[in-house]
Fold:
Amino acid sequence: MFVCKRALVLGFMLAIAPMTAMADTSQPTGKPVSIDGFRSAHFGMDQAETLKAIKTDFDLSGSAVHTQVNPVQDTNALSITVPALVPNSGPAVIDYVFGYKSKTLSEVNITWAASDPVNSPAVLLHTGAALQSYFQGASVSYKDVAGNKLLSNGSLLLFRGADAAGHVVVLVLGGNVQRDDKDKKTQITPTELTLAYGADPAHPDVFHFAPGAF
Structure:
């Protein structure tokens, strides 16, 4: 078991860039989408059920699945590494995060990081563009859609969509940002790509001190 640094990142994304402040992209048409988790892992599953979903999706079990803990949020997570989750991409770390109170799956975070040399800036850009195109081109309707927005922390929001139940999918490209005030251009050198699925990021299931406790 080790300390989890990536758990419940989607709530952080909401905090720095509320949906109402984002620019809308074109709305896909078709049947309304339902964001209920990632592949066979669905929101509300307990850890045993999620382990079965990981086995089904990636044929990983035992020592290939790591247990993480976030001591601040008091949440647990199951973490795996998957090579080439997206074609022509580097390894991706998938964190299945379980809520503080519910103890059930509340968020799935997928991270491609430049700490692995295969995930070069060019590969991260390619992977991000491929996923952005996938979500934008899906023949489904999201309740809210946003994208192509520079966030306050310098990351680039590639896509964000919500379903009618308030479940959210977010795709963010993070990295080193350089701004040219003369040409008024901003350039980002990618160091991390994150795809996150959240059950209720507006009300994250994490530990909070009670009001007036201190």
